[in-house]
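User: Hi! I have a protein structure encoded as tokens and I'd like to know what sequence might fold into it. I'm fairly new to this, so please keep things simple.
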């Protein structure tokens, strides 16, 4: 019928309490959070001062390391020298690298660094490439040369012009008698090499201070072809062996083949057998007599030969390029033309104090964990805070009392933002005060923009992640795994990709889309500038440095800000979708995109999954209630009705072959203002499912309900402002007091000032919580009964016109229960209350009408007296005699009522039901008095039907009918 599609809400809305304003909602939530924060101030202070402790640890480690490095062992070496003229004056203390050990040399001034011949990297004799059993590559010597350590240094090459390429290689390797060498400066014209890894320059080429020989690569070598020449390091003279090693050029079809051969040499061979290393490789590509284009290939694993980072390592590439370029030049211009790389040397340096900037070197990973650890911290912060409220249904409770998504997001976002900003400002300021270069050297404005941007992204990530978790422990575990795992991955990948120099820069940028990687890259860049500053005295990172293409900070800032702008609406949508009153959770949305979710299918009254449904003849009272609902919906006259349910159904579809569960089946109700409707039923009857649909916990499968004229399918946001809920399980903050709870929810209802205080005191008084210190006691100290009474008070506070109470008196003592009943009786005068209970006494005391639900269906509805009259209709006669007189008792009952029914029999005690139309109370009393003269009656009684009897009879009858169907 058309009327069922919706109701005219105008009249209801006119009488509805005004929804709380945006300012009222934000004020209520802000005050609650401030109270909560004040209550947890010790934990907050501990968290805020964590950066101070961390900076102190860094400072102490820095001082310990620098104190160790300031010992004479690491200071520039000195020597006391007497006057050469024989003066009797004390000797003069002279310091310099010539008087220093290798540990002392780095701190010495070097105004004129020594010159060293340029070298190429040559494999160790035992790992030079030889022919193996695979036969994949040809031309290598037999492996027997390794026994005599006479294997040549293989140099594969390729090129488009084969003749030109071979000629260049012939010029590259030239013969020169080693006996003609006199000192180390005369060997620069030769193709020199070393098998010593280029760990660090240290102003001294390590090959010349090593015991290993210097090699000269020539086309052929004679046995024992070597010579020893003098070398000079400062004022120290030494002898160095120069040894011939054969260079073996090998033609290859392409550089791809050379790369494969080079890879076979990975790594140096100390932990693997049969590894073949090549010295170098060349691809002359399209070179010709007028154009020289060469690609040099080398074993890049030598850059990791030391713990020293790559920027300080020697790969010895310049000489290999110079040698092949010189060979081409001599081929074109003649042997007399040379363009030699004469020597290499360091830049001069001043005397320095050896230091190690721990914060800058270890900083990126360490500080990443410090920054991101704010993400999963305890209840005070972000993810855990959000999931905690979700797990304990506190967010749902706030929403059901009128709190909108906008105020919730603004208050919590600003709360997290202020908290995180203070956390990091304390970190940076204190770190700068105690002298941590990571903070002190770099521009503070860059640090602020970087950290502030990431904080905003981090908050959005917390909101987004909270939508996918329902348990705090699960959220914490996954958050910690993400933090430490992503930090380690970022530290390993980003550092190696940047320092390796071979990973494409744009792919590094792609990796930085992962927040942990972008954070690490930004911290890495700050750390590198701090290291450079401590070594060279240069200033730290400035805004102008962001234009440097090697500086990744600009890309990081762009990525973080763009991610924040993109993920902010996404996080808001997922939070909106997963909150109470909306159709689905984020996971169900994703599932729906992949496959249609069957739970969204509408179920009709007479068809469920194509199965035949047993149609039961409904009771007259149920039919009348449905007719009343139809009339209200057709006429759209809702001013007198608070709640109208129209054929409301809920089906939970079975999984893994299990049948569907019909929780609520076709409930139709019309509830006017000023009435309390009680819903009775056994466990699993569908009472809580019905309440859950009415308060927006779950969506109905079919049907609809109208609360004050607004549909629960589409208008829950409007319904919340005039709704109160006492859920089955108490949803309370452990650290807030009872008064603070009521003040918070009262503000959500638009109360303030003295009127709020008056309403709060009245609410506490009505549930007997006003005295004995209960109002100002934290809820975690409340007993179960006190919590229950507080939940009832919350549901009734403000001008809530529709109140749902799910078993409100559970766990209460008799005195508290009576007090609670009085509060509910008084509250129902101008509002509608729907109440579920298992207490028949409570139902008869509070409820104007009762309905009994079994297996999701309404079995009857009416006032308690109507139900007792309809389903009672009998007296219950109980009599106890000696066992031998049981038959006489049965004969007595049969004379009083031929249609009587015995319902209980045990050891002489019998209970009989006597239809009221067959037995009068006076006749029963007279017959029993006469019977007592003949038979000893130990006890007897006559009672009318109770509500409990009605409930048992209706429930058993409905279950029996269900079994027969």
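Assistant: Happy to help. Inverse folding works backwards from shape to sequence: for each of the 965 positions I chose a residue that suits the local structure. Here it is:
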């Amino acid at each position: 019928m058309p009327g069922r599609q919706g109701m005219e809400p105008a009249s209801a809305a006119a009488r509805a309490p005004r929804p709380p304003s945006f300012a009222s909602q934000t004020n209520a939530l802000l005050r609650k959070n401030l109270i909560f924060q004040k209550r947890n101030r010790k934990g907050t202070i501990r968290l805020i001062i964590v950066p101070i402790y961390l900076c102190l640890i860094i400072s102490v480690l820095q001082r310990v390391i620098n104190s160790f490095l300031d010992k004479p062992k690491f200071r520039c070496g000195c020597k006391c020298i007497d006057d050469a003229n024989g003066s009797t004056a004390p000797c003069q203390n002279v310091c310099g690298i010539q008087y220093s050990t290798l540990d002392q040399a780095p701190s010495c001034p070097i105004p004129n660094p020594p010159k060293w011949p340029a070298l190429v990297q040559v494999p160790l004799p035992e790992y030079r490439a030889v022919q193996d059993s695979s036969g994949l590559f040809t031309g290598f010597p037999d492996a027997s040369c390794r026994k005599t350590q006479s294997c040549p240094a293989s140099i594969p090459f390729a090129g488009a012009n084969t003749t030109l390429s071979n000629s260049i290689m012939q010029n590259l390797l030239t013969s020169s008698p080693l006996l003609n060498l006199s000192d180390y400066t005369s060997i620069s014209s030769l193709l020199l090499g070393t098998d010593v890894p280029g760990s660090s320059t240290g102003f001294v080429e390590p090959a010349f201070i090593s015991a290993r020989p210097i090699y000269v690569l020539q086309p052929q070598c004679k046995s024992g072809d070597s010579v020893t020449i003098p070398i000079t390091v400062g004022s120290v003279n030494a002898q160095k062996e120069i040894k011939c090693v054969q260079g073996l050029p090998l033609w290859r079809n392409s550089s791809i083949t050379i790369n494969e051969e080079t890879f076979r040499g990975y790594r140096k061979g100390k932990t693997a057998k049969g590894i073949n290393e090549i010295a170098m490789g060349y691809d002359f590509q399209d070179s010709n007599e007028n154009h020289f284009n060469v690609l040099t290939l080398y074993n890049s694993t030598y850059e990791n030969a030391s713990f020293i980072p790559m920027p300080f390592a020697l790969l010895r590439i310049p000489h290999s390029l110079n040698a092949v370029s010189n060979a081409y030049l001599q081929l074109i211009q003649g042997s007399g033309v040379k363009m030699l790389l004469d020597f290499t040397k360091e830049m001069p340096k001043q005397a320095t104090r050896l230091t190690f900037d721990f914060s800058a070197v270890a900083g990126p990973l360490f500080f990443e964990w410090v920054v991101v650890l704010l993400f999963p911290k305890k209840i005070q912060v972000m993810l855990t805070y959000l999931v905690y409220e979700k797990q304990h249904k506190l967010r749902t409770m706030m929403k059901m009392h009128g709190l909108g998504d906008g105020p919730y997001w603004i208050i919590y976002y600003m709360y997290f933002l202020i908290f995180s900003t203070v956390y990091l400002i304390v970190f940076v300021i204190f770190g700068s005060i105690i002298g941590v270069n990571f903070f002190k050297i770099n521009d503070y404005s860059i640090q602020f923009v970087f950290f502030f941007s990431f904080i905003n992204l981090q908050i959005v990530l917390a909101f987004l992640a909270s939508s996918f978790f329902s348990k705090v422990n699960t959220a914490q575990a996954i958050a910690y795994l993400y933090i430490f795992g992503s930090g380690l991955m970022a530290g390993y990948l980003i550092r190696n990709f940047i320092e390796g120099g071979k990973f494409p820069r744009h792919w590094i940028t792609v990796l930085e889309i992962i927040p942990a990687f972008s954070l690490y890259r930004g911290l890495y860049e700050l750390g590198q500038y701090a290291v450079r500053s401590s070594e060279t005295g240069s200033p730290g990172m400035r805004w102008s440095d962001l234009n440097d293409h090697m500086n990744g900070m600009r890309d990081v800032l762009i990525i973080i800000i763009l991610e924040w702008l993109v993920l902010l609406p996404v996080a808001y949508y997922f939070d909106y979708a997963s909150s109470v009153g909306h159709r689905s959770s984020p996971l169900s949305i994703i599932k729906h995109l992949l496959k249609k979710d069957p739970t969204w299918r509408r179920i009709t009254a007479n068809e469920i999954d194509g199965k035949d449904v047993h149609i039961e003849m409904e009771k007259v009272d149920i039919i009348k209630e449905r007719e009343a609902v139809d009339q209200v919906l057709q006429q759209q006259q809702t001013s007198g009705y608070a709640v109208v349910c129209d054929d409301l159904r809920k089906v939970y579809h079975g999984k893994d072959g299990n049948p569907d569960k019909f929780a609520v089946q076709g409930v139709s109700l019309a509830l006017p203002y000023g009435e309390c409707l009680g819903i009775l039923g056994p466990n699993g009857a569908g009472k809580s499912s019905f309440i859950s649909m009415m308060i927006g916990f779950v969506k109905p499968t079919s049907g609809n309900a109208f609360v004050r004229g607004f549909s629960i399918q589409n208008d829950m946001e409007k319904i919340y402002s005039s709704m109160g809920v006492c859920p089955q399980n108490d949803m309370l903050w452990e650290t807030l007091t009872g008064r603070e709870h009521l003040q918070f929810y009262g503000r959500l209802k638009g109360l303030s000032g003295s009127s709020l205080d008056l309403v709060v005191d009245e609410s506490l008084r009505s549930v007997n919580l006003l005295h004995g210190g209960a109002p100002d006691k934290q809820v975690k100290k409340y007993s179960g009964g006190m919590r229950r009474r507080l939940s009832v008070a919350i549901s009734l506070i403000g001008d809530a016109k529709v109140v749902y109470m799910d078993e409100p008196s559970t766990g209460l003592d008799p005195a508290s229960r009576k007090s609670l009943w009085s509060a509910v009786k008084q509250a129902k005068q101008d509002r509608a209350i729907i109440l579920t209970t298992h207490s028949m006494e409570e139902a008869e005391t509070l409820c104007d009408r009762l309905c009994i639900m079994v297996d999701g269906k309404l079995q009857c509805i009416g006032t308690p007296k109507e139900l007792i009259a309809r389903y009672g209709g009998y007296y219950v006669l109980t009599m106890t005699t000696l066992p031998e007189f049981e038959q006489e008792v049965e004969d007595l009952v049969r004379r009083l009522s031929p249609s009587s029914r015995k319902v209980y029999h045990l050891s002489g005690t019998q209970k009989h039901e006597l239809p009221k139309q067959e037995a009068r109370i006076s006749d029963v009393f007279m017959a029993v008095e006469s019977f007592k003269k003949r038979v000893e009656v130990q006890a007897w009684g006559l009672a009318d039907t109770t509500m409990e009897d009605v409930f048992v009879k209706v429930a058993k009858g409905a279950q029996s009918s269900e079994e027969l169907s």
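A useful reference point when you look it over: Residues 28 and 747 are 5 Å apart (CA to CA). Feel free to ask if any position seems puzzling.
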